[in-house]
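Summary of Year 1 activities. Much of the first year was spent building the evaluation harness for sequence design. The harness presents a backbone, in tokenized form, and records the residue chosen at every position. We chose the following record to illustrate the format because it has been used consistently in internal testing since the harness was completed.
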């Protein structure tokens, strides 16, 4: 792999600020970011990428290429938790295996946004409708994870409140805002884009940078939890994203996605949720240990993807698309 891609990715200001956040914790700095600010910034990022995706979707139209991409996204969101569950069952009980499988079947919007910034830096085009793929991939894994718990446990007293599960899966704040912004972008089109461009485009990288600074702080604080996960889960958190990205790239090549879209699709397949799925699992599978599914996704997979994974997947694309 071309090492310059990794260097170029690491030298992006948002990624460097992620390291700065991690360093602050490791050297015991008193750097703190008030809790409401990261929440506000995460909502801004979802609004901005959802709105831009809706505008771009109107431009491209709902073509066969778009439909195939969205179908592939939903397929991966359903099958990733299935095979990862059986891998995890080698070492873990059903509750932990299902919760981690659901985490890795879902996606990380911040990893997707970082990959978008990486493509922009390299002047590689990508289509805005990939945001629709992002929205479609966030929820199915939660449902699959809960079905796996139901199928592989014998606790007759266990009863899911499916209405709460479905509400958490499809109406949680991330999905609701992302889909809502996408629809508003589609309704207002180019006129809406021109009106909101200073807000949704001009501030985007600054907010992303500050958000990744906070993610660095949070990820470093989770490092100590890795002592509980052991070598098996740490290896899983690095190898499964590579496997998922590889399968995603083969699908992307088969349906002939453009290279920029293929990278975003592979990043979606390789990423893991550390917001929506953990919230749902805490509600519906309290037997699962949160320190396992949160720390692996946030302290291992997330930094791996933004530092090494994104350039690695682009390297794979350059090989497959020759």
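For this record, the design step produced the sequence shown next.
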């Amino acid at each position: 792999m071309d090492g310059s891609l990794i260097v170029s990715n690491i030298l992006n200001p948002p990624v460097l600020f992620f390291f700065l956040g991690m360093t602050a914790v490791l050297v015991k700095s008193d750097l703190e970011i008030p809790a409401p600010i990261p929440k506000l910034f995460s909502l801004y990022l979802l609004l901005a990428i959802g709105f831009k995706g809706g505008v771009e979707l109107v431009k491209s139209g709902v073509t066969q290429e778009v439909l195939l991409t969205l179908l592939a996204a939903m397929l991966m969101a359903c099958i990733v938790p299935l095979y990862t569950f059986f891998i995890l069952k080698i070492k873990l009980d059903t509750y932990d295996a299902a919760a981690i499988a659901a985490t890795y079947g879902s996606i990380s919007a911040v990893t997707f946004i970082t990959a978008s910034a990486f493509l922009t830096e390299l002047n590689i085009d990508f289509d805005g409708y990939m945001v629709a793929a992002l929205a479609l991939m966030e929820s199915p894994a939660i449902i699959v994870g809960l079905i796996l718990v139901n199928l592989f446990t014998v606790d007759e007293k266990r009863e899911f409140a499916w209405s709460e599960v479905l509400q958490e899966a499809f109406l949680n704040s991330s999905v609701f805002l992302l889909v809502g912004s996408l629809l508003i972008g589609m309704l207002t089109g180019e006129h809406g884009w021109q009106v909101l461009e200073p807000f949704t485009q001009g501030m985007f990288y600054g907010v992303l940078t500050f958000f990744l600074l906070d993610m660095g702080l949070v990820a470093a604080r989770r490092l100590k939890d890795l002592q509980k996960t052991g070598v098996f889960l740490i290896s899983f958190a690095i190898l499964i994203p590579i496997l998922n990205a590889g399968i995603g790239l083969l699908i992307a090549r088969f349906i002939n996605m453009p290279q920029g879209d293929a990278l975003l699709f592979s990043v979606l397949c390789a990423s893991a949720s550390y917001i929506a799925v953990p919230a749902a699992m805490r509600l519906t599978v309290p037997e699962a240990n949160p320190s396992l599914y949160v720390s692996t996704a946030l302290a291992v997979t997330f930094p791996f993807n933004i530092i090494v994974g994104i350039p690695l997947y682009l390297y794979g694309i350059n090989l497959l698309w020759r």
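The CA atoms of residues 245 and 266 lie 5 Å apart. Quantitative recovery figures across the full test set are reported in Table 2.
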